[in-house]
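name: query_chain
kind: protein
chains: 1
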Amino acid sequence: MKTDELIAMIAAVAVPVKTGAASRRLRYALAWGIPSALLLMATILGVRPDIWQAATIPMFWLKVLFPTAVALVSFGLAQRLSRPGAGLGWLPAILAGLFIAIWLLGVFVVAQADVSKRSELVFGESWATCPFSITLLSVPLFVATMWAIKGLAPTRLTLAGAAAGLLAGGAASTVYALHCPEMTAPFIGIWYVGGMMIPTAIGAIMGPRLLRW
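structure:
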């Protein structure tokens, strides 16, 4: 069979991809990944016992909303990176703005605190386990988001893998916030972000291998 005939045959049976296929596939992945991460958190780490009292404190909502916002922006990035040639628009700038905002808030809080309190604000009681707990909770989300992107048409595989990892890390951080006793901006800006960066780095490294066609 000649090349022209093969191309013509493939074109004859090709059907257009439904609008919103990438978004739907990623939503399916999150619909499986988030409950799995919640179950993992509840069984291994446990929900903080004073969560209802903590929910009355504004910083509790900051540590929930910040990673949620990161996950939402990462969802948009993963969706666009799942399609060949799709532009990223303002999403990278918005993502950078979220990180810069939490870091600036953290610096402000530390600068305003007494010198004797600064170490506690930064390290809390769980700095050594926080990033790795987030990474653990991100595993089902990472698997689900990589599966979702693999079934689409990514061409920038390193970036697509990183976006999948950051989406998993952001969503896992939101889940982890239901367990975590820490509620300071410096802690969130360092250790929560560190927890998000681990699956992001893993995704960037594994993306070219796992997402290739």
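note: DSSP finds nine helices and no strands in the chain.
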